[in-house]
Design goal:
669 residues, five-stranded mixed beta sheet, eight-stranded mixed barrel, alpha/beta, single chain, rod-shaped, 17 strands
Length: 669
C-alpha cells in the first residue's frame, strides 16, 4: 500500500476514535443524549458483574469474587452517579469536550479491567459457570455498545478491547460451544457496530437539520418581529403609529381599571403645519414633523414619575398615554412643557419656521369609563382648544361634556331640519368708506329650530361641517341669496361665504356654478368670501376652485384676514379682489397703538397690491374716521346697520338715499 494511502487510512481511523471538537452543535447534542444513557451502561456492568461474582463465590478466590468485582462495581457506581448529576448542568463547549474526551480515555482501562477479571475468573468454574462468563461478556459488551451509541469513539473502543480478546480467548479453549458463542458474539457485535455507524450518521444529520431548522425558525421569528415592528411603527418619524397607540391605550386602560388609578389620553395637533407644507413643500414639512416628534418624545421621556407613551396618529396629529396616576396639574404641566418645546424655531436650511400646538387631555375615571370614550373626550378637548384656546392645553371637563351633549342635539336636529323652512337669511351692508354709500350686502344664515329656537351660526355651521351637511346647506342658501340679490339695484353686490368643504370638494364647485347660472344674476355682482382656514384645508384644490369662480367673473374675498397662518403667502398666490380685516383689530384702533399699526399695514398692503380693503366690526364714528384716514376702502359693522331680513333692504336703501341726499344738500348750502 502506498504511504499516502496508508496515512489516509490512519487519519480516518484516528477520526473514528476522536470526539468531534470541530462541530460544537453535534458535540453538545452528543453530550446531552450520552449523559442520559451512560448511567444505564454502568447499571448493566454492575448488575451483570454482581451476578457472575455470586456464581463463583464458593469456587474462586475471594480476591476474584469479592475484592476485584467490588472495586469495579464501586468505580462503575461512582461514574454512574457522576453522570446522573451532569444531566441538568449547563456547561460550556470546552467543558463538554473535556468530559467527552475523559470518557474516551476511561473507556479503555475500564473495559480492559472487566475483561481481564472475566478471563481470570473463567478457569475456576464448571462448564455452566464458564458458559455464564462467556454469556456475561457477550451480553455486557452488546449492552455497552448500545449505551455508548451517541459517543461512537467510546463504543468502538469497548468493541475492540472486549471482542478481540473474547474471540481469541474462547477460540483457544477448543470447546465447540464456546467457539460458536465467540463467532456469534463477533457477528452480533459487527451488526451492532454497523447499526452504530448508521445511527451516528443519522444522529449527526438530525443535529444538522435541527440546527438548520432552528436557524430558519430564528430567521422567520426575526422577520416576524421586524414585520410586527414595522406594522406598529410610523415610517416617517419612527414613532409608534396609530395601531400601536390604540393597542397601548387598551392595555394601559385595563391596567388602570384593575388597579383603580388614573390614566390620561392626550391628543396633540400642530397649529400652522399645513401652511409650512404649502409654502416650503412636503420635504420641509416632513423634516418639521420629525423634529417636532423628537422634541415631544424628549419631553415625555423626562416627564417624571408619570410614564408618557407617545405616538404619531397621522398627519400632524400625535397621541399621548399618561400612566402613573396623573392629576390635572400633571397634565397641565406636561402640556405646557410640550407647547414650549414645539414653539422653538425650526431652522431648516434657508427656511425658519415656527409652530405651536394645541393639546386636549381626558382622564379615566373622571371623563369616561371606556378607552374608546376616553379618546373621544380627549379629541373633543383638542377641538375646543383649536376653536377657543389655540396653542394651549385643554383638559376635558364637565363643561365640555355639556357642550358635547348640546353639540349632539344640534347635529341630530340639523339632520332632520327643513333648510327651506327653518333657515333664514339676513344681510349686512358693506359700505364705501368715503362716500358712505352701500356697495353690497353680505349674506348671513340664521337657524330657527322648532325645538331649540334661534341657534348661532357659530354652533350650527361647524355641526353641518362635521356631519357632512355643509355642502347641501350652502347650495340651498346660495340659491335663495341669489334670488334675493336679483331684486336689488344692479350696482349692489352680493357677498356669500363658502366653507372649506365647498371649495375643496372632490367634485369641485360645479354644483355652485350650476346654481349661479340658473339664478340669472350676473356673476360679476357676486363676491365669494373664503377664510384662510378653508384655503389651508387643501390649498391646491382651493386654488383651482377659486380660479374657476374668478374666470366666471366672480369676485374673491379673503375673510378674517390676520387670524390664520401664512396670510401673506395666500394673498400672494391667490387671485383676490378684497381682503376683509377681522373685527378683532378694530375694537381698540383708537386706544391700542398696535391695533392701529396693524390696520395701517394691512391697508397699505392692499393698496400696493391693488385690491380692496374691507374692515369688519365698525361700531362708532371715531372708528370710521380712523379707518378713513388709514385708507380703508369698505366698512362693515353695526355703525351703519345690523344684519337685516331681505324685506327690510328696500327701506334701508331708501333711508340711506334720503340721508345722503340730505347731507349733500347741507354741503351745497
Amino acid at each position: 500500500m502506498p504511504v499516502a494511502d496508508l496515512k489516509s487510512v490512519l487519519a480516518a481511523a484516528v477520526r473514528l476514535f476522536r470526539v468531534p471538537a470541530d462541530n460544537p452543535d453535534l458535540m453538545r447534542a452528543q453530550f446531552s443524549a450520552f449523559s442520559k444513557q451512560v448511567p444505564l451502561l454502568y447499571f448493566i456492568l454492575m448488575s451483570n458483574t454482581i451476578a457472575v461474582a455470586y456464581t463463583y463465590v464458593n469456587v474462586a478466590p475471594d480476591w476474584l469474587t469479592m475484592i476485584v468485582p467490588g472495586v469495579l462495581t464501586v468505580l462503575a457506581g461512582l461514574r454512574g452517579y457522576w453522570w446522573l448529576r451532569q444531566r441538568h448542568l449547563v456547561r460550556s463547549d470546552a467543558d463538554i469536550l473535556r468530559n467527552l474526551r475523559a470518557t474516551n480515555w476511561l473507556t479503555l482501562p475500564i473495559s480492559a479491567g472487566f475483561t481481564a477479571w472475566s478471563f481470570a475468573l473463567y478457569p475456576y468454574g464448571d462448564p455452566f459457570a464458564k458458559s455464564q462468563v462467556a454469556f456475561y461478556m457477550a451480553v455486557t459488551v452488546i449492552g455497552c455498545i448500545f449505551s455508548l451509541m451517541h459517543l461512537r469513539s467510546a463504543a468502538l473502543i469497548v468493541t475492540l478491547v472486549v471482542d478481540v480478546p473474547y474471540v481469541l480467548f474462547f477460540f483457544a479453549t477448543g470447546e465447540p460451544t464456546l467457539k460458536a458463542t465467540a463467532v456469534n458474539n463477533l457477528l452480533v457485535s459487527g451488526a451492532m457496530v454497523t447499526v452504530l455507524f448508521i445511527y451516528y450518521r443519522d444522529f449527526a444529520d438530525l443535529v444538522a437539520s435541527r440546527k438548520s431548522l432552528l436557524a430558519q425558525q430564528a430567521a422567520t421569528q426575526a422577520l416576524s418581529d421586524e414585520n410586527f415592528r414595522l406594522a406598529n411603527l410610523d415610517s416617517l418619524t419612527e414613532l409608534p403609529n396609530r395601531r400601536r397607540f390604540f393597542a397601548e391605550l387598551s392595555s394601559a386602560f385595563a391596567d388602570a381599571e384593575r388597579r383603580h388609578v388614573r390614566v390620561a389620553v392626550g391628543i396633540i395637533d400642530l397649529d400652522g403645519f399645513k401652511p409650512i407644507n404649502d409654502n416650503y413643500g412636503h420635504s420641509v414639512g416632513d423634516r418639521v414633523l420629525i423634529e417636532a416628534g423628537r422634541r415631544i418624545r424628549e419631553v415625555c421621556e423626562g416627564f417624571g414619575p408619570q410614564r408618557a407613551e407617545f405616538a404619531r396618529l397621522g398627519g400632524d396629529e400625535f397621541g399621548l398615554i399618561v400612566c402613573g396616576d396623573p392629576d390635572d396639574a400633571d397634565l397641565t404641566r406636561l402640556g405646557e412643557r410640550i407647547g414650549d418645546r414645539v414653539k422653538l424655531p425650526y431652522h431648516l436650511d434657508t427656511a425658519h419656521t415656527g409652530l405651536s400646538c394645541s393639546i386636549g387631555f381626558a382622564s379615566f375615571p373622571n371623563s369616561a369609563t371606556t378607552s374608546e370614550a376616553l379618546y373621544e373626550c380627549a379629541d373633543y378637548a383638542l377641538y375646543h382648544a383649536k376653536r377657543h384656546q389655540r396653542g394651549r392645553t385643554v383638559i376635558f371637563s364637565s363643561e365640555l361634556e355639556a357642550e358635547i351633549r348640546s353639540r349632539g342635539v344640534i347635529e341630530n336636529l340639523l339632520r332632520t331640519s327643513d333648510f327651506g323652512a327653518e333657515m333664514e337669511l339676513v344681510f349686512q351692508p358693506i359700505v364705501d368708506a368715503m362716500s358712505e354709500h352701500t356697495a353690497g350686502f353680505e349674506t348671513l344664515a340664521r337657524w330657527h329650530s322648532p325645538r331649540l329656537g334661534w341657534v348661532s351660526p357659530a354652533d350650527f355651521i361647524p355641526a353641518a361641517e362635521r356631519i357632512g351637511l355643509i355642502r347641501p346647506l350652502t347650495q340651498a342658501l346660495l340659491a335663495r341669496a341669489l334670488a334675493t340679490a336679483k331684486t336689488w339695484p344692479d350696482d349692489l353686490r352680493l357677498s356669500f361665504n363658502l366653507s372649506a368643504h365647498d371649495v375643496c370638494a372632490a367634485e369641485g364647485i360645479l354644483p355652485l356654478i350650476s346654481i349661479i347660472e340658473k339664478s340669472g344674476l350676473s356673476p360679476r355682482r357676486i363676491d365669494f368670501e373664503i377664510t384662510e382656514t378653508a384655503v389651508t384645508f387643501d390649498f391646491v384644490r382651493a386654488q383651482q376652485s377659486i380660479a374657476t369662480l374668478k374666470a366666471m367673473g366672480c369676485g374673491i374675498s379673503l375673510d378674517d384676514f390676520g387670524t390664520g397662518y401664512s396670510s401673506l403667502s395666500h394673498v400672494h398666490r391667490l387671485p383676490l379682489d378684497k381682503i376683509k380685516v377681522d373685527r378683532s383689530f378694530v375694537a381698540e384702533i383708537n386706544e391700542n397703538p398696535v391695533s392701529h399699526k396693524i390696520i395701517k399695514s394691512l391697508a397699505g398692503l392692499c393698496d400696493d397690491m391693488e385690491i380692496a380693503c374691507v374692515v369688519e366690526g365698525v361700531e362708532t364714528r371715531a372708528q370710521l374716521d380712523s379707518l378713513r384716514r388709514l385708507g380703508c376702502d369698505f366698512i362693515q359693522g353695526y355703525y351703519f346697520a345690523k344684519p337685516m331680513p331681505a324685506d327690510a333692504i328696500a327701506e334701508y336703501l331708501a333711508n340711506e338715499r334720503q340721508r345722503l341726499d340730505g347731507r349733500g344738500a347741507r354741503v351745497v348750502a
